[in-house]
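Deviations from the work plan: none for this task. Representative record:
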Amino acid sequence: MGHLDKEYIKKLAHQIMIDVNDQEIEELQTDFAHLLSQMQLLQEVDTTGVEPMVYPFEQEVCYLREDHVDHCITQEEALKNVKEVCLGHVKLPKVVK
Amino acid sequence: MNLETLRKQDVRKRCEEALMKAKEYQSVLNAVVTFYDIEEQLQNLEHVASDAPLYGVPVVLKDNINTKGVRTTASSVMLDQYVPVYDAHVVEKLKQAGAIIIAKASMDELGMGGTNLNAHTGKVNNPWDVQRISGGSSGGSAVLVASDVVALAIGTDTGDSIRKPAAFNGVVGIKPTYGRISRYGVIPYASSLDHVGYLTAQVKDAALALEVLAGRDDRDATSSYEAVGKYASNINSDMKGKKIAILGNVMDEIQNEQVKQNFDELMKKLEARGAIVERVHFDDQLMHLLLSVYYIIANAEATANHSNLDGIRFGLREDGDTLEEIMMNSRTKGFSSNVRKRFIIGSYALYTENQDKIYKKAQKVRRLIVEELKRALETYDAVIACAAPDVAPTQKECMNGKLKKIQQVADNHMVLGNFSGYPSMTVPTGYIDGLPIGVNITTKPFDEQTLFDIGVAIEEETGIQNQCAEVKV
């Protein structure tokens, strides 16, 4: 794991639909340098046979619910925070060219 | 202020006074994002039994708790104009119990921070010394309890976001067991670490609040079926035979002699009450990875969770010629530089080629770290340590970050409660030059009762209960 160049950081940013300026990239390069040195320490821990801990508790508390409708919101409510609405839909630029 | 004292006052008067005080202090503390008009809630009290546990009690919510019809920003530009169309589960619970919400409190943007310096409404000031930080991310909530505005403020805790501000502001801060309080309707940060909790001015109120807020909710897939206890009436501060483990890794690092002395004296007092107090030491290699493991997991989960903040269905929408441009422009402008950088680090950890060596590795190390705590709690009733290595820093000290490297475990150990999901509480224990300090206690899953029992014993020994800062306007 080495130094992350500007283009790679831009690519990381664009994949999650955000942009960063040159100063932010420089700061990120410092952050990544620190993170990558920490990664080396992480790799030194023997995790042979250890399962990843995804959630604190592994007992199941989530079951399939009965298929009945509850906690609904109206169309009006669903669109309340949308900036551009047209005929009961979210208005967007043309997607199909 | 505590709940018992509040109840002796006229309902309208106490709620109006709390709101007035919050507004009056705003220019000094900057703890509030949105004030409520409480009239409708006061009128709705006629539908609530007057013996409801929080009847007419003014409360504050962290601004990542969705409130129907009331702006909920999570202190982010992205959500500055967002008005939820539904209430979070905790809001429903509070309303059923008769609480009156007076304000939404400032926080670090989307919960991502421990200083409350990263809020789009600016720094929240510590009421004990306004030059100092409140801590975060539930900084506004902690400050409003510490300044005697409310007796109960809801917060959330992903790393130590309730318990650290509690220590810095001299109040009680509790992060109950993972799944104990539903997170439905709470704007997430990192789902495997996020907890809803709260701050109070005394432990007994914390016990009562858990009775109101806890319980199974089908809308949160991680919500527990575990029965809710009668925590307040069952409080028993008898420490005879209680086995308490001091977390040596934390105490070894603390450099402030007054902090150490305060802690040592408290431990002697607990021993004098019959507690068996011993020192334990977790694996040093693992403990020095606490922050890195947290940083990887939290940022990766945050990146995924906040992909819904795209400016299309809600939140800030910037112009663009294409859907992609709208999203890119909205997200770039909507999130602070700090948050965008964290997302990029999260994105890196989640890259297919990095997942095994970074993200999954961090999850495996997380399990090993939790095993250390689990083992200790097989022998002991509680693990205890100073909540923070020092008093609240000033903004300048905070930006410097010099101490953090040499006190890394002492500064970050409370994340153990988030990794494990075990209940954890901070209780104030003293003052250094007028600034509060506290201890953190962690117990077995769903054993909040022991937390409260030890917490009350500590209050009895220190005499610190309902001690609020005097705010000079």
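Chain A is about 35% helix and 5% strand.
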